[in-house]
Amino acid sequence: MKQRTDLLIVGAGPYGLATAAYAQMRGVDHVLLGEPMEFWWRHMPDDMLLRSGPEWHIDPLDIHTFESYIATSHGSRYSVNPIPVGLFRDYGDWFRRAYHLDAKPGWCESRQSGQDSLSRHGDWRIRGPAQAQS
Predict the structure, then answer these.
(1) Cα separation of 97 and 92, whole Å?
(2) Looking at the domain 2-128, which fold is it?
């Protein structure tokens, strides 16, 4: 199945979610491809601690920050440092819902650009569950 978009974001981890939120805010046609925070859910134990402190976050708009997530979901007096991976995954899910980010499961099989290497649009094919959903 071929689809067209201005921006194909491959991977729905923290940086993919952040990129999708920024693209959405800027009005850029985009597709976020992947399972949200999948690597973090499958390969990182809940009690593993991040080196980043609570002031670090993934929101390029500085609205849905980790600190705002903590204040909203745990209360303003709740303090956490260092951050357990399980809590950060929950933040990623909260962030995705706050921005209404829709990730398509699957992976990019191929990508072809237009005739011009500076073409804004490219065709891409997906393989996996997203085929049936599009």
Answers:
(1) 9
(2) FAD/NAD(P)-binding domain (3.50.50)
The answer to whether 32 and 12 have CB atoms below 8 angstroms apart is yes
Q: Which residue has the tokens 């990623």?
A: 92
> What is the pLDDT at residue 134?
39
User: Any idea which residue has 């980043």 for tokens?
Assistant: 52
Q: C-alpha distances in angstroms, 134 versus 2, 13, 36? A: 10, 21, 17
Helical H segments across 44-99, by residue range: 66-74, 85-98
**Strand boundaries in the chain, DSSP class E:** 2-5, 7-10, 30-33, 103-104, 107-113, 122-127
Give the model's confidence band at 5: pLDDT under 50 very low, under 70 low, under 90 confident, else very high: confident
Q: Which residue's entry shows tokens 């925070």? A: 37
Domain ranges of the chain: 2-128
- Dump pLDDT digits (tens) for 43-95: 999 889 999 888 889 999 999 999 999 999 987 777 888 899 999 999 999 99
In 10 A of CB 1, how many CB atoms? Answer: 12
Name the DSSP letter for residue 49.
B
